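Usage

Read records sequentially. Each one opens with the input sequence:
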Amino acid sequence: MAGNLPEYYFRVRENGAFVFRVDTENRQRRIEMDQIAVINIRNGQIKPHGERDLTEDDLEVIRSWMEERTALLARRDIDDIHRAVDYLNMTTHWVQARASDDQLDEVTDALLLAMHDLRTVLVRKKADRLTQTD
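and closes with the structure output:
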């Protein structure tokens, strides 16, 4: 098992990750993870952990992971939006076909406000894009 492990492990957190160097070359043949850095995806910051000096190899692996993670999160964001469109369509069908008056009373105002807010932002953003291309 130890021979197949990567050299680095990234423990994902909300804004980035903790970076560990994986060590299996010890006398007990245990997997040891030594934290070497903390990274922040949002601002691109890489902070060495403790008194560590990161090597160029460390930095190259970390930067590569950050790029891959950013791309993955972007794909997930757009996938979530496509799912939201599906949920809106399913909600419309539910309202039309199955919702009771009590259920509609419970959700109508919240849905109308959320859809109004979304529509307002979408229209403003579309107008901004149209005026920028002219």
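Summary fields computed downstream for this record:
- The mean pLDDT is 94.
- The two ends are 59 Å apart (CA to CA).
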